Structures
1.
Amino acid sequence: MAGRIRDEDIAEVREKARIDDVVSGYVTLRNAGGGSMKGLCPFHDEKSASFHVTPSRGFFHCFGCGEGGDVINFLMKIDGLSFTEAVERLADKTGIQLRREEGDVPQGPRGPARGRLIEAHRLAAEFYVDQLTTPDALAARQFLGSRGFDQDAAATFGVGYAPRDGEILFRHLRQKGFSPDELVTSGLIGQGRSHYDRFRGRLLWPIREASGEVIGFGARRLYDDDRIEAKYLNTPESPIYKKSHVLYGLDLARKEIGRSSQAVIVEGYTDVMACHLAGVGTAVATCGTAFGDDHARVLRRFMGDHGELRGEVIFTFDGDAAGQKAALRAFGGDQNFVSQTYVAVEPSGMDPCDLRLEKGDEAVRELISGRTPLYRFVLGNVLTRYDLDRADGRVDALREAAGLVSSVRDKSKVEAFTRELASSIGIDPDEARAEVRRAAARAARGGGRDQGRLAQQQRPGSQQSGQQPGQGSGPGHASGQQPGGSASAAPEAPPVPNLRDPRFALERETLKLVLQHPAAVANAARDVTVHDFTHPTYAGVWQAVAASGGPAAGAADAGWTSRLRDRITDPLAMAVLSALAVEPVLSPREPDTAYVVQHVNKLLELTAARRIADVKSRLQRTSPQQDPVEYNRMFQELMALEQRRRTLREGALGG
Ligand code: ZN
């Protein structure tokens, strides 16, 4: 990548990309009064609308789960983007040309904007859908019919047909004003001696972003004379299509995955369709690649968790050797992920699409609900290779299985697995424990050689290659998260008082005014200092305010709240900042200067009262005879404080 995006451009993106527009692409917002809007939170499962957006401040916050931030943060969270990716996408949307800081990486010529590539895909998808009704597409319709999909199903999933004519899409999109370069970059068009359509004579599934935008296609072979042998072809990597991130069906499954904290990973486009039609609305598939870290990251976001993975990820493997290998490989990977991973295998090896055809929707739902924990599936596979009726068979089975169990990094799981292993083999649990301990010792002596062997044996490349789009899409590389089970090691933080405690109500309300009405507050808040905030989190928010030029700076700058957020590193303070930026102020009318002055004076009055109490206490402990100078100084201070408190009170009352 080229150098860092310039700060001015990021600021401009924040200013021009309206947060309510962006959020509305994902959440239905309605007016909540006071310039605020609300809807159902996309980040957690809820029935009441706790998710607030304040367009004028460019902020969102959920009072249910605490997620909050500006338009860039929103896009990062909802679509799993990096900061730079989110800024780039918003820049394209708002027509801002991003400039980069001079970096050590030379910047190549800029390719077509994302918006152009998306538009080309939108038009291509429309074009292909239209083609599905032509006489030429008979084989495509027959294929769909043979897999149990009618016209409605095809329409729901936007299935289309790429004609056999080699450049019909190219001509169509050229007519719509796209340049050959744009079309080649998009991946829709190939270029040899001339330009040609990438997909010819194939049945097509549009692959969509979570937001519903088409970014690529998956294409199934239909004709025996197709010169490309592969049964499935996918869009090549492009600026908008990254196969390591893409999950087919996510646009349809997103809500249900969030609601149920469950995701089902199937192996192909027709399986996704079959699952959804059968009522398993959480099904997605990888496209032409194994399930990896990035896919796990994407899912984790939609499963509505904040930090660690919650919920279930269910893989539908073939029960065959490839599926078992994929499962075993996953087992050697990340343990947090593994403990939440399940496997749904149909005994006769049917995939969800076949199953729906032969046995109906109910059978598909049963397949998923009959899921098995991954570790049990893996251990089961190991044990089937031995004759457990023979003593030597049991010994060998125990030795191999114990090696697997001991490789589980989450030690809290090891005991449960060991007991289960013992009962599966039919031996005493103590015998199994001893063998697991020996296996662990062997692994330690061998420098983790057992795990290395496992990883080597089950490299993804060792599988036969690409027939179904997600061929071998086991949770192969589902690693790269935190190593398992070390959560309890963190030292306990000192308890923080409840932010909603009435003691801090005035501090909270003042900060809301500061963040939401900086212009009205600017003058009144001149005397406010960090000492006026007794809650450490509120004090932290005020410090960020002060460091960003105070409310006066905010009055003149729409991006101020975002800059404040950048100054805060404490996650709690960050969440509080976005909450304060959107929570309705407790004023029946639009807060004016008089209201704000009254408010700020009350806050200062409280500070004065606290100091009065402090000084009085010290006075009582000081002898006027022994220390007359200090006593008099404190007495003067007390008088001054009392005077200040009166002034503030009169100001607060008189306006
Ligand atoms: Zn929420």
Note: The two ends are 57 Å apart (CA to CA).
2.
Amino acid sequence: MAKPRIVVTRRWPAQVESALTERYDATLNDSDTPLSVEELQAALRSADAVCPTVCDRISAEVLGGSGVKARILGNFGVGYNHIDLEAAKKAGLVVTNTPEVLTDCTADIAMTLMLMVARRAGEGERHVRSKAWSGWRPTHMMGTKVTGKVLGLIGFGRIAQAMARKAHFGFGMKIIFHDPFPPAGEICNAVGAVRCDSLDEVLRDADFVSLHCPGGKETYHLLNAERIGLMKRSAYLVNTARGDVVDAQALIGALQDHRIAGAGLDVYEGEPAVPAALLEMDNVVLLPHLGSASLETRVAMGMRVVANLDAFFAGREPRDRVV
Ligand code: DGY
């Protein structure tokens, strides 16, 4: 029997590409250039499976019209707000994602951003590299202590819980959170996490606010000017979730007017574009969407896609089916 035909939209770790080419008639993207709308449409019309990533917009336009041959979108990534799920369902596609395997690495990057922005690590590194450093002195580049402070988590799913463990047990932080669908009490108790009834309460009380909610319509600009205005002037914002959860212009205004102390960002609305104003600010740490970017995790994510495809083409329910 002919192997199912799959199109992979970007380069994946070599070990995963090998697994895919062994099992499938796989078209890989050796140039690693993002596919255009037309190329995505052509992939959906010629392959049995398309394997996109967060940077491919699988919109109603891409999925619409007749002739879609593909039956599954094996997404490489846990977030799927770049896929129009209604349009995918209408086109008869199963959609899968890659949860769990990136939990710790994404929480590690949230911790990295929190520590870097509080302790001025990005700024300090630039200072040394530019040869501006003239030596130790008691008042040089004083930052903010992290240990023992209050960490406010917006969303308390797997990644937030992992960050809570690291922050609580590693840095003695007090954890507060808001989540409309909170986990079981024992999960909260294990890290002494206190549930707040409202998002606003977390924003008012936290020294560090870290975002862990999904992207999409429900959370678009959840952190707008008004909500950012509730944060302490001494507080920092960390975003490893999705760029459009934060109104970037409101955040820039708050940073410029010193209404909050700083921000650590891994994700941006309209990435890879980053607002010029942010690039100029020293109290902002900017990373290029590195949340899951460790070799171990990226291989695990890819192998999770392979497992989802294998199950689907063997007529079984894929473990990570979203729709
Ligand atoms: C995801 O998996 O959704 C991440 O944002 C990619 O690292």
Note: The first strand starts at residue 5 and ends at 8.
